[in-house]
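tokens incoming
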């Protein structure tokens, strides 16, 4: 199973379910509740919880951001999903960020992450209580990482 190339504003139903299933499998609780008859992709895209993911490239590129993520990073879908994940952090803390991502890859998830990020327009913000988690299928095959957080403050 490969992550699909995402087109348009929002993830495919398959990718959205992949994010939701990975989160629930690792943390033992749902990231969000999808109402009966609602599509997972719509629920995830419209969630007030910021959700983003990246793939497995040598320099991982963002492959998903919900509406809250797009607004926070001040990007449209096409720009966001072409951005290397490392560019969401300030240059001086990118090495620290890389060490953190490697720790998540080994442990599966971390649910207490905080750090300063930067939008495309240079707006700095600190995220709090972020869950950073591996994207895996039900057999444990690794496909990348995702993050979800509800708390942030501009700095």
């Amino acid at each position: 199973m490969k992550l699909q190339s995402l087109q348009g504003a929002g993830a495919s139903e398959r990718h959205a379910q992949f994010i939701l299933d990975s989160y629930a499998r690792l943390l033992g609780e749902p990231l969000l509740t999808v109402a009966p008859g609602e599509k997972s992709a719509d629920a995830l895209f419209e969630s007030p919880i910021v959700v983003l993911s990246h793939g497995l490239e040598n320099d991982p590129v963002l492959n998903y951001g919900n509406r809250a993520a797009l607004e926070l990073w001040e990007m449209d879908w096409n720009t966001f999903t072409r951005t290397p994940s490392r560019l969401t952090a300030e240059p001086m803390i990118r090495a620290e960020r890389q060490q953190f991502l490697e720790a998540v890859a080994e442990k599966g998830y971390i649910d207490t992450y905080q750090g300063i990020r930067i939008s495309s327009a240079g707006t700095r913000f600190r995220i709090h209580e972020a869950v950073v988690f591996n994207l895996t299928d039900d057999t444990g095959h690794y496909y990348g990482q995702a993050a979800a957080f509800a708390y942030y403050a501009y700095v």
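note: Strands lie at 50-54, 62-65, 109-118, 124-136, 142-149, 151-154.
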